[in-house]
Amino acid sequence: MTDHRRLEQATSTCSYCPKACRFSCPVSEATQNESLSAWGKMSAAHHVVAEKKPIDVEVSAAVHACTGCGRCTSFCKHENDVGPTLFAARGEAVKAGLQPRGAASTLATFHQAQNPFGRELGSLVASWRAQRPVRYPLFPGCSTLVKRPGLLEQTIAVSDAFGAPMGVAKSASKCCGYPLYAAGSFDAFAAHAKSVAEAFVETPEVAVLDAGCAFTFRKLYPEFGVRLPTRIRTVIEVLHENLPHAPERKPLPQRVGYHDACHLGRGLGLYDEPRALLARAVITIVEAPSVRREGGCAGGGGLLPRTMVETSVEMARRQALEISDDANVTMVTGCPTSTRMFERAGRRAMDLISVLEQWVTQP
Ligand code: SF4
Ligand code: SF4
Fold it and tell me: In the CATH hierarchy, which fold is given to the domain comprising 247-361?
């Protein structure tokens, strides 16, 4: 089936559906707007994809109102791939010059600097390159490199304590390209993925810190015909494998709330590993009523924090409330983007790695 036929079929399936997943979309819930349900957005995309009507500002806004979290797909009898279909429809908005401002500026920055931050990443990576032999080359992701160097430091400390030393890989100066994919700029994403594959030629294995980057390498690249010459694992998988070598420490006397980040959970199927790590590090873990495949979304994907700023923060606020309405409960996630979203929503939040670092370094 051609890509276009597949898109047509996906939007048709939704537009003829009696909105069976209407309760599932966290964007629709956060905005209280049924036209932003999976059904509403796919029906809007159907006009452009199947009926070949020119895209307009309204349809562009609708197809951009999605984080690609995949929650609707978990509740869909057809397992319809709503997120990727809406991202593909964004390509029409790119062609027509009708992207929301935040998406257009992200794309422009990416084209200029090859990453969404407009930074030169080579020198940042050089300042972190390991001065010693390490077991696992580490790919932190540009968001951590630019915004959270402390998390990078903690990852290295935890990996040492687990007997699985990591050091930043030279190839870490490349962005995975997810923002191009999320902006619907699929040709540019495929070309970028090829350039990443070339940069990874001398990297047989990496531990990837950001779940979004790991998802992009493992799931999206093959869909675009790009195979990396590199074994891709998340830092969480590597630490879980090395958990038997972790130091004997008492769990921290903390009550935390665990959130299944979308790319880590629904994206990569990693539900048990982060929970096993967290269960060693803290005394009490609370969770939302809906977890794992049906878990909520913290609003960080699909460029939503740049296109619908308030909605993305509201999504994080609602997801934190689902987990616990006690403001003293710290949200813990296995994805730096989700951690940041909870912080923006005014909740205490920590990356799983930061909790592990506190655990292994306690006196
Ligand atoms: S995702 Fe599935 S359940 Fe939801 S509207 Fe589309 S076809 Fe229906
Ligand atoms: S992928 Fe997530 S944000 Fe997008 S329509 Fe489905 S539930 Fe909503």
Answer: Rossmann fold (3.40.50)
Angstrom distances, CA of residue 63 to CA of 181, 184, 314: 14, 10, 19
Which residue's C-alpha comes closest to atom 2 of ligand 2? 69
Q: How far is the CA of 11 from the centre of ligand 1 (A)?
A: 9
* Distance of CA 9 from the midpoint of ligand 1 (Å): 12
Ligand 1 site, residue 21, Cβ cutoff 6 A: yes
Give the domain ranges of the chain. Answer: 3-99, 121-241, 247-361
- Helical H runs in the chain? 3-15, 26-31, 38-49, 57-63, 71-74, 82-96, 101-113, 121-128, 142-147, 149-161, 178-182, 186-199, 211-215, 221-223, 235-241, 272-281, 304-307, 309-323, 336-344, 352-361
Say if ligand 1 is within 6 A of residue 20 CB. Answer: yes
Quote the percentage of the chain above a pLDDT of 70: 99
Q: How far is the CA of 159 from the centre of ligand 2 (A)?
A: 34
Q: Is the shortest distance between the CB of 78 and ligand 1 below 6 Å? A: yes
pLDDT grade for 276, boundaries at 50, 70 and 90: very high
pTM, two decimals, is: 0.96
What confidence tier does 304 reach under pLDDT thresholds 50, 70, 90?
A: very high
